[in-house]
Amino acid sequence: MHLLTYIRRAVALVALTAAPAFAQDLGIAVGEKAPGGPLETLTGQTVDLSSYMGKQPVVIEFWATWCDNCKQLEPAMRKAITAHGKAVHFVTVAVSVNQSVERVKAWQNQHKMPGVFLYDRKGTVSGAYDVPATSYVVVVDKTGSIVYTGVGGTQDLEAAIRKAK
């Protein structure tokens, strides 16, 4: 990604993290096929996001350790994982803005958030999803189509997941 594009996205990401919840106004369009892209596990292995698609619904949260909206959304995310964890993949994509994989690992070791944690070191997947801010949630149905997008700490994850079933 061109450095200037990366900086513009980083500034937009930081500027919008305190925004109130809204759905389907920014980011990748509902109805599009969910793109894959290279990410890293917290142990440094490369994995393609597409490997989680096409079998069952997927909830993707673009997240950061420093994101207040992500902290606000965490109880709802934990509740959704408890309720739907066997029928829905939950994937947290840690953006690389102002955090390292080591910082994400330390957070995960302390908080033990269920689901899969992946790191977007180069911003490739964040760019493919046109992520407007952290706490950006994308719900993908089992055919790989996006059925919901939203940003903020007060999203109705239950209603979003129902759209994917």
Walk me through this protein's architecture.
It is a single chain. With 165 residues, the chain is α+β, with helices and mostly antiparallel strands. It has one domain: Glutaredoxin. The protein contains five helices and eight strands, in the order αββββαβαβαββα. It has helices at 3-16, 68-84, 101-111, 124-128, 157-164, and strands spanning 22-23, 38-41, 46-48, 58-63, 89-95, 116-120, 136-140, 146-151. The longest helix is centred in the middle third of the chain and has 17 residues, at 68-84. Residues 1-24 have low confidence and may be disordered.
Provide a short characterization of the protein structure.
With 165 residues, the chain is an alpha+beta fold. Helix content is 33%, strand content 23%.
- Gyration radius (Cα, Å) is 14 Å
Number of helices: 5
- Which runs of at least 5 residues are low in confidence (pLDDT < 50)? 1-24
User: Mean pLDDT score, rounded?
Assistant: 87
Tally of extended strands? 8
Order of strands, main sheet, comes to: 1-8-7-4-5-6-2-3
CATH topology: Glutaredoxin
Features:
alpha+beta; Glutaredoxin; disordered N terminus; globular; about 35% helix; eight-stranded mixed beta sheet; about 160 residues; 8 strands; 5 helices
List the helices and strands and how they pair.
Elements: H1 3-16, E1 22-23, E2 38-41, E3 46-48, E4 58-63, H2 68-84, E5 89-95, H3 101-111, E6 116-120, H4 124-128, E7 136-140, E8 146-151, H5 157-164
Parallel strand pairs: 4-5, 5-6
Antiparallel strand pairs: 1-8, 2-3, 2-6, 4-7, 7-8
